[in-house]
Amino acid sequence: MLAGFSVLLLEVAASQQGIPLSVKLWASAFGGEIKSISAKYSGSQLLQKKYKPPEKSVRVEEIDGVKLVKNLAVKMEEMFRKKAEATRRLVEAAEEAHHQHKDNPDLQYEYFNAVLINEVDGEGNNVELGGEFLLEPNDHFNNLSVNLSLSVVQVPTNMYNKPDIVNGVYWSEALNKVFVDNFERDPTLIWQYFGSAKGFFRQYPVKWHPDENGVIGFDCRNRKYIQAATSPKDVVILVDVSGSMKGLRLTIARQTVSSILDTLGDDDFFNIIAYNQNIHYVEPCLNSTLVRADRTNKDHFREHLDKLFAKGIGLLGQALTEAFTILSDFNQTGHGSVCNQAIMLVTDGATEMYDDVFEKYNWPERKVRIFPYLIGRESAFADNLKWMACANKGYFSQISTLADVQENVMRYLHVMSRPKVIDHEHDTVWTEAYVDSAGPSLMTTVAMPVFSTKNETQKNQGILLGVVGTDIPLQELMKLIPKHMLGIHGYAFAITNNGYILTHPDLRPLYQEGQKRRKPNYSSVDLSEVEWEDKDDILRNAMVNRRTGTFSMEVKKTVDRGRRVLKMHNDYYYTDIKGTPFVGVALSRGHGKFFFRGNVSVEKLRDLEQPDVALADETYCNTEEQHEHRHLTQIQAIKLFMTGRRPNLKDRELIKEVLFDAVVTAPLEAYWTGLALNKSRNSDKGVEIAFLGTRTGLSRTNLFVAADQLSNDFLTAEDKEGVFNADHFPLWYKRAAEQVPGTFVYSIPFSTLENKSVVLASTAIQLLDDRKSPIVAVGLQMKLEFFQRKFWTACRQCTALDGKCSISCESEDINCYLIDNNGFILVTEELSQTGLFFGEVESAVMNKLLQMGSFKITLYDYQALCREYAGSSDSARTLSDPFSVVKWILTELVFLLEFNLYSWWNVDLSVKQRSRGKATMVPCDTEYPAFVSERTIKETTGNMECDGCVSFVIQQIPSSNLFMVVVDNTCDCSNTPPVTMDPVEIMYILSNPTHVENFANESLKCDRLKFQKDRKKPESCHPFHPE
Fold first, then answer.
1. Do residue 458 and residue 500 come from a single domain?
2. Which residues are 291's β-sheet partners?
3. What is the pLDDT of residues 457-491, one digit of tens each?
């Protein structure tokens, strides 16, 4: 039988007569059977008839993208304005409270320890300093137990009970009233706070917990504080590495430099120079320039700090000359902050004052401030360093131990903030996106500085009291987005003045899903790293420069956590948001060009109240704007809205559209019920669930089996978290939209690969004209065993009149597979291979397919994390997070077969881990291949020599995304390497380069460090103050 099959394939290939009739028969029979089942149980044909434009109650409209994005920008601007007003009220209250307060060094008052409240001893009594307070879980505050009437004060352990702290805590209690009032005015507010320049932190509402070690080490004077308190700055850090800096002094110096780097933000620029008798740039390729102080660059320099060693003599004069020259030259390019300039000098002493250098480069304007840090306990050369600081508008600090570093470094910020304080400019600062420590949600913060308004002395006019602010969950931005008007693949996103993503569906800030850990560089992902097809940064630069316009390009978007990729054409509409640095919002409209509008009466509300109907959360009525609405479900809120009793709850048009969808899809309830009652049609309970979803967020489900008999829930965990919300449609909906109308897309959900129990099938209901606009997707979930049985039954059919088939899937010499258009196996005789990529199982066949007609591309992930082991070289890294697929670059096109451009990924196929030492997660760039095919290829045959002859045929299953593959397995091809998508880390710098290409890699890494993308400088700058 095998010989006949091999001869048949060879003859067919030689004569180019096509696929064996038996295989065509099998594919046709299975395709017809499975489509019949899918269409019947999904109700797709019934629903297609219901959505027809000719009815008077229905009209089709084209979306005006420019108008849409401008309206969205206005809504976001209003939201930001309300948050800024709440912050300004805190500023006014704090300055007034401080003005009225008279410092008392002996001030004492009662207080409670927030960590101990409601704690009791063994006898049931409150512990000392504990007290009893009402704390209630509040879902608005990540379900933490809070008290909405009080704030809590946190004091870092290194602050102790200083008089300044005691007085500051006392007068800042006046903020409690404003905290409460702000929250009553705007119930969407979350955490509000005052961070004192003295180090204490007042937060509303009451919530504070020590870390896992029982320590409260948080210092509120972090990047958010610094960004609000100071203007942007260019900084050169000079580090003394002469022989006298050996040992502990060099260790303290490294820590001092690292702490200085912690105070720099994305609007700042810096470089580090080590000096003895010579000048040594810590990063040699960045000589004579400055780089942005983003997380990546600062971490890169920190790695080089460990390579510093002390020897020789220190010639500070030439180091100061180099620093002044860099600052002057870089300022003239206009690429830096073009605001404040400073030189940080970390040394154990200076033998002279170097007034000749200052006179030449810095006097009389004194635009560059000097901040000397004297390392060690000796003070022999302290006077010279103090003079340098005072003569150049700086500040002198002495650091004797590692414990002194943090507090002494922070002192320079008071000097840098003085011009802003004296100008009395309460600049509004919006931070980059960050992950809330109280939960996994992304946040931004609006902050303003608080100044002393006391006029006892001229000096007091320049005193910074602290910073007030409020946190804004980025999900609040998402609630403003008209999701139903963006289409299935559409989304909105915003960026900061530096081009970093504030919100975007491809931003992946977390890894290790169960633990929700933050990635190191998640807050500085550039727009160009996710909208990578815009190779010239046209879209990015237009948004950064606050323009309004449109842009269009072909894109490839990943779905299913990077395992699949969809090819689309996106139209972008962008504009600026006035009053904020979030310089743009863009809408990408995949299938959002046209949409239905339908008119229905209020009486039709009953169609929304059916048990099979569900609505997307927080989409239609924002029930959080008023406290009395928070108990309402979406359907209850819509009912009040439509009856006129709550006329201002939300978008009237959206509510009408979802009501229209409920009416049009209502007949499916009766249709599905009829199928469920006729048990003879589903006697083996192979079909378990039918479901549908509309672009307005309405969904319906029907169970054909009892809930406790379900093999698997058809919604993945990811779908449950965001079904129809913001930028998210379920995967089955997105993939159905890309299918040819009238056909079904089948897949085994990756979330069920462990038990491999179900198959999903879905199709989109579209306008049957040139306006490609899927408006509803329907589908079903069936048992995998049921699906496979239908396949094997079809494969038993025979074209021979005598019933003796020339080939059979039951033969030991033949392997039969059913794969989807991404190359994943749905049916195979070896059950353990179900769900695997075909190239892992039949590598010889896949290699031949690559040679015969498909094409392969290389994709890049610039948000990956690699696992680096202690004591290992860079080459010992392994990929840890293959699903954070964000930036994709097509660099290699090799003509291949027919798997639609869907990348896939299996964590089991990642680079093998090595159990050596302790692993550290480090950012890295990775590359991996994806397999793509053309829809025009329906069938093919092939031969391959492999210890004999390997022959195969591949035949498309009609009306589906599936292919049948029949392989002659008599040849031993076990030595053929598997075709995988293993990610590989891109190594830009190789240790001890000895070849030309290694030097080229080093040059590439240097070019990446030097490259500066367009950015919009902050509009305010306060560099000087009077003597």
1. no
2. 270
3. 445 457 889 999 999 888 888 778 877 778 788 88
Residue 550's SS3 state is strand
Residue 893 maps to a domain:
no
- Same domain for 765 and 638, yes or no, is yes
Contacts by 182-189, CB closer than 8 A, 24 or more apart:
182/86, 182/89, 182/90, 182/470, 183/148, 184/627, 185/86, 186/82, 186/83, 186/86, 187/140, 187/624, 187/625, 187/626, 187/627, 187/630, 188/476, 188/624, 188/625, 189/83, 189/86, 189/470
pLDDT (tens digit, 9 = 90+) per residue, 202-229? Answer: 999 976 666 555 555 566 777 678 888 8
Verdict on whether the full-model pTM lies above 0.85: no
Q: Letter for the amino acid at 674?
A: G
Q: Which amino acid is at 818?
A: L
Based on the fold, state whether residues 450 and 373 are members of the same structural domain. Answer: no
Query: Which residues, including other chains, have CB under 8 Å from residue 1017's CB and lie 6 or more apart?
Result: 232, 267, 337, 338, 339, 497
- Dist. CA 465–CA 232, nearest whole Å: 19
- How long is the chain? 1027
Domain presence at residue 486 = yes
Residues 282, 379, single domain; the answer is yes
Do residues 722 and 728 make contact, with C-beta atoms less than 8 angstroms apart?
yes
Q: Are 784 and 757 in contact (CB under 8 A)?
A: yes
Both 52 and 31 in one domain: the answer is: yes
Can you read off the two tokens belonging to residue 489? Answer: 């693949």
Which CATH number fits the domain that encloses residue 238? 3.40.50.410
57-68 in b/e burial notation, b at 16+ Cβ within 10 A? Answer: eeeeeebebeeb
Q: pLDDT tens digit string along 733-761?
A: 888 888 888 899 999 987 655 667 899 99
Neighbouring C-alpha atoms within 13 Å toward the C-beta of 207: 19
Instruction: Say if residue 142 is in the same domain as residue 83.
Output: yes
CA-based nearest residue to 836, from 980, 659, 1018:
980
Domain final position from 551, 572, 592: 592
Q: Which of 320, 342, 357, 347 is nearest to 270 (CA)?
A: 342
Q: Alpha carbon 622 to chain centroid distance?
A: 25
DSSP label of 521: T
Q: Is 624 helix (H, G, I), strand (E, B) or coil?
A: coil
Tokens 């910074």 identify what position?
A: 464
Integer-rounded Cα radius of gyration of the chain:
33
Of 236, 452, 251, 249, whose CA–CA distance to 345 is shortest? 236
Q: What is the CATH number of the domain that holds 934?
A: 3.30.450
- Report whether 816 contacts 6 (CB < 8 A): no
Asked, for residue 15, whether it belongs to a domain, the answer is no
Tell whether the torsion through CA atoms of 632, 638, 642 and 646 is positive or negative. positive
Is residue 775 situated within a structural domain? yes
First-last CA distance in the chain: 100
Q: Report the pLDDT averaged over residues 701-707.
A: 88
Domain check: are 120 and 265 in the same one?
Answer: no
Average pLDDT, integer, range 441-458? 82
Q: Using alpha carbons, select from 285, 251, 289 the residue that is nearest to residue 270.
A: 289
Q: How many domains does the chain have?
A: 5
Based on the domain organization, do 614 and 758 belong to the same domain?
yes
Enclosing domain of residue 202: 70-218+428-473
Element spanning 933, H or E: strand 919-933
Nearest to 387 by CA among 351, 424, 419, 361: 351
Q: Residue 869's beta-bridge partner residues?
A: 919
Residue keyed to tokens 């899903």:
513
Identify the helix (H) or strand (E) that includes residue 146: strand 144-146
Task: Return the number of other C-beta atoms located less than 10 Å from residue 278's C-beta.
Answer: 11
More confident residue, 142 or 745: 745
Integer CA distances (angstroms), 187 to 4, 179, 625, in order: 76, 11, 6
Distances (CA, A) of 425 to 67, 414, 582: 35, 15, 21
